[in-house]
Specification:
Structural class of chain A: alpha/beta
CATH architecture of chain B: 2-Layer Sandwich
CATH topology of chain B: Heat Shock Protein 90
Strand content of chain B: 25-35%
Radius of gyration of chain A: 13 Å
CATH topology of chain A: Udp-n-acetylmuramoylalanyl-d-glutamate--2,6- Diaminopimelate Ligase, Chain: A, domain 1
CATH class of chain B: Alpha Beta
Number of helices of chain B: 5
Radius of gyration of chain B: 14 Å
Shape of chain B: globular
CATH superfamily of chain B: Histidine kinase-like ATPase, C-terminal domain
Largest interface: A-B, 27 and 33 residues
CATH architecture of chain A: 3-Layer(aba) Sandwich
Number of strands of chain B: 5
Number of helices of chain A: 5
CATH class of chain A: Alpha Beta
Order of helices and strands of chain B: EHHEEHHHEE
Helix content of chain A: 25-40%
Order of helices and strands of chain A: HEEHEHEHEH
Structural class of chain B: alpha+beta
Number of strands of chain A: 5
Oligomer: heterodimer
Largest sheet of chain A: 5 strands, mixed
């Protein structure tokens, strides 16, 4: 699935990264808890969240998350969008709730992120 | 083995706004050095978790990055308050984080176990009233 597909399915608007709509995404995660996102998410993922602060972008950058979707019509500040631009992360906004947005993407075949295996030697 | 690079990043207690800046710099530095995406992600996640821990739980500390030909090492050394029960602190879901950390989406009690899971080698030493030192190394695959 591409970020463009995510945008269409979620009837979302593009707030940042309109030139990267053809990038592929392989998994998704819906959470307001960045601690859990850090523990579970893999690369090439979409993060759907109702939490709006710069740590959503910083967490995403650490994990190589390619796309953040802010749910329930909430809009991030310019400062957050600038951080996303610097990190090369696409930002979408949808009026759907996190639950509905996750459900729509799942129905269209985008699987959830599974917990990764322990690091080698750990 | 010879240390190719060493950088120190002071981390201020309670500086929630800037938390993550050291990790962002470290990630970009290692990327420029050509560290593979897979290893880079493990280092970045563990680094972000340990930096947040310094901000949320410590009285301030220093994060040190060391790069050697075969591994990357992160050392977090703070000046207190120390962890009374390390086994408890290492348990998933156990957290002593304050409301401010939780509002930002952290403090779920995943940090230390997640560092251990991402690092190749993980060591934590702590003494109440003295401080905590966490040493994590990450093997660079050839």
């Amino acid at each position: 699935m591409t970020i463009q597909d995510v945008k269409d399915i979620l009837e979302a608007s593009v707030l940042e990264g309109g030139d990267r709509m053809n990038e592929e995404v392989e998994t998704a995660c819906g959470s307001d808890l960045m601690s859990d996102v850090l523990a579970f998410v893999k690369e090439k993922a979409v993060l759907i969240t109702g939490l709006i602060n710069p740590h959503v972008v910083r967490t995403s950058e650490m994990l190589d998350i390619t796309c953040i979707v802010f749910s329930r019509g909430k809009l991030p500040s310019q400062e957050i969008l600038e951080e996303a631009e610097e990190s090369g992360i696409t930002v979408l906004a949808t009026n759907m709730t996190t639950y509905t947005a996750c459900g729509e993407l799942y129905m269209h075949g985008l699987p959830g992120s599974k917990r990764r295996a322990p690091a080698e030697g750990a | 083995m010879a240390v190719l690079m060493e950088k120190k990043f002071p981390v201020e207690a309670g500086a929630y706004e800037s938390a993550g800046e050291a990790s962002t710099t470290i990630k970009r530095t290692l990327k420029q050095l050509g560290v593979s995406a897979d290893v880079l992600r493990h280092v970045s996640v563990a680094c972000y978790e340990v930096e947040l821990n310094l901000v949320i739980h410590s009285d301030g500390g220093v994060l040190t990055l060391q790069v050697e030909p075969d591994k990357v090492t992160l050392i977090s050394k703070d000046v207190g308050p120390g962890i009374p029960d390390i086994d408890k602190a290492m348990t998933e879901g156990y957290s002593t984080a304050n409301e401010e950390a939780r509002t930002l989406g952290f403090g779920a009690g995943m940090g230390l176990p997640n560092m251990k899971r991402n690092a190749t080698e993980f060591d934590i030493q702590s003494e109440v009233g003295v401080g905590t030192t966490i040493t994590m190394s990450f093997a660079l695959k050839g």
